[in-house]
Specification:
- The complex is a heterodimer.
- By secondary structure, chain A is of the alpha/beta class.
- Helix content of chain A is about 40%, strand content about 20%.
- Chain A has a five-stranded parallel β-sheet, with helices on both faces.
- Chain B is built from 17 helices and 19 strands.
- Helix content of chain B is about 50%, strand content about 20%.
- In chain B, the strands form four sheets. In chain B, strands 1, 3, 4, 6, 8, 9 and 11 form a seven-stranded mixed β-sheet that branches.
- Chain B starts with a helix and ends with a strand.
Chain lengths: ~230, ~625
């Protein structure tokens, strides 16, 4: 699956770690593994971690303390605990940690799959910017999606939408966009016009796809362009 | 004994014993008596009184005042004979006077004060011996005045010089046998009491000692063997009152009437009070009155015991038959003796000793009954112990299930991680490479074998194996550690071992494992209430003089001083009722001492305890 997320996986049993890592590779591009709670904390600090899957009984700091420490720095990170049945009660202490959930060892494949799908959806949703007219923008992958369908955009089209999203509160005229689009090049009148043409082409293309008059980039004459969010 | 069956010679017409033979003895002959109820007649008046014929062994019922006896002797031989008159029951009398007449002229007069001290009363042991001579062809008459104490019984016999000595020597033989048997059985029961601390043995010993003392008095042994005379001896009658007390106490404890026969228990207690009142009356009023009252108490206890016997049979108590047979044999003997002493049936050797003989029989049957009783008790104890052992094993089972859960966690987690991986792979990629699959299946197999061997180990522990075998103690300790390795032991308690055994020992493997598990469990439970941060159990072991020494040291805070002396006691626990059963250490000690021929001791150290076992 094409994602750009990083997983921190802490598990002290080598066999379980190896097999689960192989499974997780289907969901994450980057997986960082360790068997030690202290090392895990270090790794968390040095990497941009999106998801943490933590076993409760690990060396060093136990899984719950580790989760608590991570949560201190980061409210966004998704945390999934893995515990033995006998440790289940300990999870009650973790009620304030805003966990995504837990898996009880031995882990059932079905539950693992459900949890991984849940993580994937959460991550995807988190990176989706909902635009007007049923369009969404994936912040991570810079993709424009219309009803789950990825729309092919040129490099400059992509970059333009990105620029408009970055300045979503302001109107930008074509010269401003050009300036941000082609850093270093001094914009001339004709050059600014290129941006106008680019946006016009994009509009036509999208209206053709959506078969409607609605469009998520607002063009206010004499002021500039602005992205429309819902 | 044979002597007693000898036909006795008497000539009714002459009313005189003819002394003819060189060798003679008369032990049951006819003589004459006259009751002087006023106790005031002089010998002159008596001589004119109307005498009646009775046996030389006899008893009178009720209070009789003084009784006069007359015996005539006629020497039909040509030699002067020396005769010895024995008053065998002289010790039951207060006072005896003997007048010797020859042809109506008084030749001699003697007075015996039986209640006087030894020496002055002129008794030969318990017997009054009066010697006199009868010239050839002479007729002599003896008038004997007897003032009795409590019991008016009489037994005269007449001997020549040789038989006189024999009679004196043989007198105490059967009485002493009875008394010695009773005292021996009393000691036997006393020893049983000392050994097993059950009160019924003490009461039965006291019952027998009390009866022995009673017989020592009744049979004259007190005088014959101990030379105790005087008014004091009169108080020996109190033993007759105490009989019921000890018997009732014995019955209460043997049959546990307090719990098993509540109504009977009340009746038995009532008898105890009656006996106590009876004894009190002896001191407050007087002994004669107390002995009269005794008849009421005795009848009362007899009725209660008959009723109790009936209840015992009805409830088919295992001891019922033995008890009833023994008790009624004694009651039978007792009635015979009492009757013989109250002139209801003839007084003779057998009737007089019947209570003694039957008490011996009763005591022997009761001793057997007590033995049987102990067996029943031991059976109960054994059953209780089995319950305890199974309870402990169950408790261990609970702990072991935790340990099994812990042991199985890893292989189960591993196996499922592998199967999950394969499932994902199949679903996402459609196929799995053959070599990869083989590799994963091998991993699954090895994990399943681990699961299976773990469960086998646990199963073996619960299987009884009763054979001694050469045991590697270090391996057993490690196995015990594995068995008790639940989450607490793994994560919170550090275990350090230093085991240097130089040889294997021949012992019961599972028992050893069991006790080590119990000791570890005890430490583990002690840690539950300990605030120690670095919880640690150190196990040190070595072989000294072919014996295995193992020290289990923990730092769980030690045992409180007030608990320390009792830690190996049954049901003693310092833990809250829901966690400790109180049988762990008790059973540990039992197994070590009784099965493993070893010892266990506990020592409190700075902040923990050392349990040392030596096997």
């Amino acid at each position: 699956m094409n994602t750009n997320f990083t997983l921190l996986y802490v598990e002290d049993d080598k066999v379980v770690q190896e097999n689960f890592t192989a499974i997780f590779q289907n969901y994450f591009d980057n997986i960082i593994t360790t068997d030690d709670g202290n090392k895990a904390l270090e790794l968390y600090e040095n990497h941009n971690i999106d998801v943490a899957i933590l076993d409760i009984s690990i060396h060093g700091v136990n899984g719950l303390s580790l989760a608590a420490k991570i949560r201190e720095h980061d409210q966004e990170i998704l945390i999934l605990m893995v515990s033995a049945y006998s440790d289940k009660e300990k999870l009650l202490q973790a009620i304030n940690l805003n966990l995504l959930g837990y898996l009880v060892k031995p882990v059932k494949t079905k539950e693992l799959k459900e949890k991984l799908n849940l993580i994937q959806n959460k991550l995807l949703k988190r990176n989706m910017l909902t635009l007007s007219s049923n369009y969404t923008w994936n912040i991570n992958t810079h993709q424009l999606i219309y009803y789950n369908k990825v729309i092919n955009l040129s490099k400059n089209e992509t970059k333009t939408i990105q620029i408009l999203i970055e300045h979503k509160n302001n109107f930008l005229n074509s010269c401003d966009i050009h300036h941000l689009l082609f850093v270093g090049k001094e914009p001339g009148d004709d050059i600014c016009n290129n941006v106008t043409q680019l946006l016009s082409r994009l509009r036509k293309k999208l209206l053709k796809i959506s078969q409607s008059e609605d469009y998520f980039i607002q063009n206010c004459y004499g002021v500039g362009y602005k992205i429309n969010l819902t | 004994m044979k002597k007693l069956f000898l036909l006795l010679f008497f000539i009714l017409s002459l009313q005189a014993l003819e002394i003819n033979y060189d060798h003679f003895k008369y032990e049951n002959f006819k003589l004459e008596y006259f009751k002087d109820k006023t106790n005031s007649l002089t010998i002159k008046q008596i001589k004119k009184s109307n005498f009646k014929t009775i046996n030389s062994q006899n008893s009178f019922s009720g209070s009789v005042g003084s009784v006069w006896y007359r015996i005539n002797f006629k020497n039909v031989s040509s030699k002067t004979k020396e005769l010895f008159l024995h008053d065998n029951f002289a010790y039951f009398s207060k006072k005896i006077e003997i007048y010797e007449f020859s042809n109506n002229t008084i030749e001699d007069k003697n007075q015996y004060n039986i209640l006087s001290d030894a020496g002055t009363n002129k008794l030969a042991g318990s017997t009054l011996v009066y010697s006199f001579k009868v010239l050839p062809k002479q007729v002599k008459t003896l008038y004997i005045k007897n003032i009795s104490m409590v019991t008016s019984i009489v037994n005269f016999s007449i001997y020549d010089q040789k038989e006189n000595l024999n009679a004196l020597l043989n007198k105490t033989f059967y009485s002493n046998i009875i008394i010695i048997i009773l005292i021996t059985l009393g000691l036997y029961n006393l020893m049983l009491f000392i050994y097993n601390k059950r009160r019924e043995f003490l009461y039965y010993a006291l019952y027998l000692f009390n009866a022995s003392i009673g017989f020592i008095y009744m049979y004259g042994t007190l005088y014959n063997n101990f030379f105790i005379y005087g008014k004091l001896t009169y108080w020996f009658n109190i033993t007759a009152i105490l009989v019921s007390l000890f018997l009732v106490l014995f019955i209460e404890h043997t049959f546990d009437t307090k719990n098993s026969y509540k109504n009977i228990h009340k009746l038995l207690n009532f008898i105890i009070y009656a006996v106590l009142i009876n004894i009190l009356s002896a001191f407050v009023i007087d002994l004669t009155f107390a002995i009269e009252l005794l008849k009421v108490v005795f009848t009362l206890s007899f009725i209660v015991l008959v009723y109790f016997s009936y209840i015992l049979i009805k409830t088919s108590h295992p001891l019922a038959k033995l008890f009833i047979v023994a008790y009624f044999i004694y009651i039978f003997g007792m009635i015979i003796t009492l009757s013989s002493m109250s002139n209801i049936i003839p007084l003779n050797f057998f009737t007089f000793h019947a209570s003694g003989f039957t008490l011996v029989i009763e005591a022997i049957i009761f001793s057997y009954l007590m033995n049987y009783h102990v067996e029943i008790l031991e059976q109960k104890v054994q059953e209780q112990r089995e319950v305890i052992i199974s309870k402990n094993k169950k408790a261990q089972l609970g702990g072991m299930i935790n340990a099994i859960t812990h042991q199985w966690k890893q292989p189960l987690a591993r196996t499922t991680s592998i199967t999950s991986f394969l499932e994902f792979k199949l679903e996402l990629e459609g196929s799995i490479h053959k070599e990869e699959l083989e590799d994963k299946l091998a991993q699954i197999n090895s994990n399943i074998f681990f699961l299976s061997s773990t469960i086998d180990d646990f199963k073996n522990f619960f299987n009884h194996n009763t054979k001694k075998e050469l045991v590697d103690v270090k391996a057993i300790i490690n196995k015990a550690l594995t068995f008790s390795k639940d989450d607490t032991l793994t994560k919170e308690i550090v275990i350090k071992t230093d085991l240097n055994f130089s040889q294997n020992i021949n012992t019961y493997k599972n028992e050893l494992l069991h006790v080590i598990l119990n000791i570890l469990q005890n430490s583990k439970e002690a840690f539950a209430s300990s605030s120690e941060t670095t919880k640690m159990i150190k196990i040190f072991g070595e072989t000294i003089n072919n014996k295995v020494h193992i020290d289990f040291t923990d730092n769980a805070g030690g045992i409180a001083a007030e608990d320390f002396p009792f830690i190996f006691d049954e049901h003693y626990t310092t833990k809250k009722s829901d966690t400790g059963s109180g049988i762990g250490l008790y059973l540990t000690q039992k197994i070590i001492q009784e099965h493993l021929d070893g010892s266990i001791e506990a020592v409190n150290i700075d902040n923990g305890t050392i349990f040392r076992i030596i096997i």
